[in-house]
Automatic annotation (TrEMBL):
Residues 374-497 form the Integral membrane bound transporter domain. It comes from Ferrimonas sediminum. It comes from the Bacteria. Coiled coil: none annotated. This is Uncharacterized membrane protein YccC.
């Protein structure tokens, strides 16, 4: 029973709802004691801005970020509140300028972009207290409320043992368990492993950020740091498949498949146990079944260390042993530095570089400013009350691409419609006055818990809360329903039209740039591995960073391709899918070689010279081809690649030959990439 309660308490959505609900309740209690209940209630309009900006979550240079983030949010509330109260027509140009300036903050980084969006949300929220409270008082209350939520959240996280880091780590281990469990299906359907796993990439990015924050504050829990490093090692091991086609044949062998199924099932369950332990703060016990499953798999693989599997079977024996060790100990295979010192970016230079028309960040900011100004112009032309509803619809449905934006817009429309229907039924049933207010307050926690889950569901409950508040104020619930629906539909429609026709950022148009960046990063990773095998000094941190950046660009390629498939004027582009598959396989070969490179293994000088020259020439040819300078795959390069192949054939089956085997496969993958480079990247007219 206690374990179930702890698991419920530490559930990410429940914990979020409890944290924000308790912070809001304590804030209202303080406002009531100071006889400022109305102002305190209005200042809670800052909560969405806090949630969107992420200032309540740990981040790098947290105090420095707060020192300018909170004044920016308060300043936005003050400026647009004053304009709305004293010069309403001025909101049209002000929203355009604000949309451009705040939207362009995304040029710095993701968190800055979220802060810019939060400032625009507060610009819309500042229209709520117009005529009720002074803009100065409202802006001051907003700043104090933001600071209160941030301090309350920091205390909340500390009392729960670095909860954000634990949660992100737990989600990462759960995702690793899913990936490992899918390997059995991958044997039958190779298409399951062709693309990068986007959820795992997002979670590991969060983990890396939270670890960096805790490290900078000298509050990093050693246990959590060990779990983080083990997760990175597991990701590297699970991604490293030396020869996908031959590997499937190996694991599909009659004597191997049952043992492999058992080992996958036991190890996946162990990873889920690690996730539960991280979330509930429960200590882990050693799992004897894991050792037994590992021994059975090793025993099944050992007889196959001959003939066609002579290179693969020893590798997978070692890999299974290391994965089992990682899962059993929840600690890395070896200790090393994971973070290199980050240089403080030149924010002014970054902003100026993006403040030009060819930048998608600037075009997106201009589009956002136009949509906000147009929305306010329509609201004022028709003299609609509560125009901030339409502004919020414009701001809150916008996502990174047109596909996600379209999905979110429809979710907001049907969520609002469902919420209005439910609220109308409650009013007809006799819910009004204090009962309406009580119901609205009771719905706050579930609404908060649904925000990260589904925008439509959270809009449904949020609309019910809103109508209940109006019903409590003066039995106006039914009266505001048509306007709520009309402004929501209007705001979402403008966003859909704007993102369709105002300089849309089609993902197909990004493919050429992403391909070039990805291949360039892959080449950098390859060069580090070759340097290590040639006897040059290569630090583990540089290898880890190269693997990480290569992986992140693979994730970007996958995300762009999946959005491209659903955009207007696009359908499946065969070369894009094939590129992702080969890119991932090439990184998989490099990941299989990375442990040997870290341990300082060297190739003989004569072998190293041939391999290095061949693969560097191949990587340069591929990068030039993706840069638009397609030439011939030279006869000298092909002769060197064939010499590498003969060298691999003549070598004995040992660790050195495994390195040559993987490097030879990398040469084949680069030749396949070169063939793809001969086909132009998708553009707006691509229909293949």
């Amino acid at each position: 029973m206690g374990s179930a309660i702890r698991r419920w308490w530490f559930n990410g959505h429940v914990n979020l709802a409890l944290r924000l609900s308790l912070a809001m309740a304590a804030w209202l209690a303080m406002a009531w004691c100071l006889d400022l209940f109305q102002l305190g209630l209005l200042s809670l309009l800052a909560i969405p801005a806090v949630f969107i900006s992420g200032i309540d979550q740990p981040s790098a240079h947290w105090l420095h970020r707060l020192s300018w983030s909170i004044p920016l949010l308060g300043g936005s509330a003050l400026l647009f509140g004053c304009i709305g109260q004293y010069w309403p027509v001025g909101l049209i140009p002000a929203l355009f300028v604000g949309g451009v300036l705040f939207g362009s903050l995304a040029a710095w980084d993701e968190l800055s972009g979220r802060l810019g969006l939060a400032a625009l949300v507060l610009a819309a929220m500042a229209q709520v207290p117009v005529g009720i409270e002074s803009p100065w008082l409202f802006a001051l209350a907003v700043m104090i409320n933001c600071l209160w939520v941030v301090l309350f959240s920091d205390l909340w996280f500390r009392l729960q043992g670095d909860y954000p880091l634990r949660q992100a780590l737990a989600l990462s281990y759960r995702r690793l368990a899913v990936i490992l469990a899918s390997r059995v299906k991958w044997i039958e359907d190779p298409q399951l492993g062709e693309r990068f796993d986007l959820p795992l990439a997002e979670q590991l990015a969060l983990v890396r950020r939270y670890v960096g924050v805790s490290k900078s504050r000298n509050r990093l829990n050693p246990e959590l740091y060990q779990a983080f490093m083990a997760a990175i090692d597991l990701q590297e091991r699970l991604q490293a498949i030396p020869n996908p086609e031959l590997s499937r044949q190996l694991f599909n062998a009659e004597d191997v498949l049952p043992s492999y199924r058992l080992w996958v099932a036991v190890t996946s369950k162990r990873l889920r146990q690690i996730a539960d332990g991280l979330m509930t703060l429960q200590p882990l016990q050693a799992d004897e079944r894991l050792e037994a499953a590992e021994a059975a798999l090793v025993a099944a693989l050992k007889p196959l260390q001959q003939h066609q599997f002579s290179q693969l079977a020893p590798y997978f024996i070692s890999n299974a042993q290391r994965i089992s060790r990682l899962a059993q100990r929840v600690a890395p295979l070896y200790q090393r530095k994971m973070f290199a010192p980050d240089e403080r970016p030149d924010y002014w230079r970054q902003w100026r570089l993006h403040f030009r028309w060819r930048s998608p960040v600037f075009r997106g900011a201009v589009r956002q400013g136009i949509l906000l100004a147009l929305t306010m112009a329509i609201v004022q032309w028709w003299q609609w009350d509560k125009g901030y509803w339409a502004l919020l619809s414009v701001l809150l449905v916008v996502r990174g691409g047109i596909v996600d934006t379209r999905r979110r817009a429809w979710q907001r429309i049907w969520g609002t419609l469902a919420g209005l229907a439910l609220a109308a039924a409650l009013i007809v049933a006799g819910i009004s006055g204090n009962a309406a207010l009580l119901l609205g307050l009771l719905l706050v926690p579930p609404t908060l818990s649904l925000i990260p889950v589904h925008h439509g569901y959270s809009c449904t409950l949020g609309t019910v809360i809103l109508i209940m508040v109006f019903e409590y104020i003066g039995a106006q619930g039914m009266a505001v329903m048509p306007l709520r629906l009309l402004e929501t539909v209007m705001g979402c429609s403008l966003v859909l039209l704007g993102y369709r026709y105002l300089w849309p950022q089609w993902q197909g148009g990004r493919q050429a740039q992403l391909r070039q960046q990805a291949v360039g990063q892959l080449n950098g990773y390859l060069k580090l591995v070759l340097d290590a095998f040639s006897g040059r000094e290569v630090t583990p941190v540089s290898l880890a960073r190269a693997r990480r950046f290569t992986y992140e660009l693979g994730v970007a390629l996958t995300s762009s391709f999946e959005q491209m498939q659903q955009e207007p004027n696009y359908s499946r582009h065969r070369d894009s899918a094939e590129l992702i598959r080969i890119y991932k396989q090439t990184q998989s070969h490099l990941n299989a070689l990375a442990p040997a490179a870290r341990r300082g293994r060297h190739l003989p000088a004569e072998h190293s010279a041939l391999v290095r020259q061949t693969l560097l020439d191949a990587s340069e040819a591929v990068l030039s081809a993706f840069s638009g300078k397609l030439g011939d795959w030279s006869s000298e390069l092909e002769a060197n690649r064939q010499a590498m192949y003969r060298l691999t054939q003549d070598s004995e089956a040992d660790r050195g030959s495994f390195i040559l085997y993987q490097l030879n496969l990398i040469g084949e993958r680069y030749q396949q990439l070169y063939a793809i480079a001969g086909t132009p990247a998708p553009d707006k007219q691509s229909r293949r």
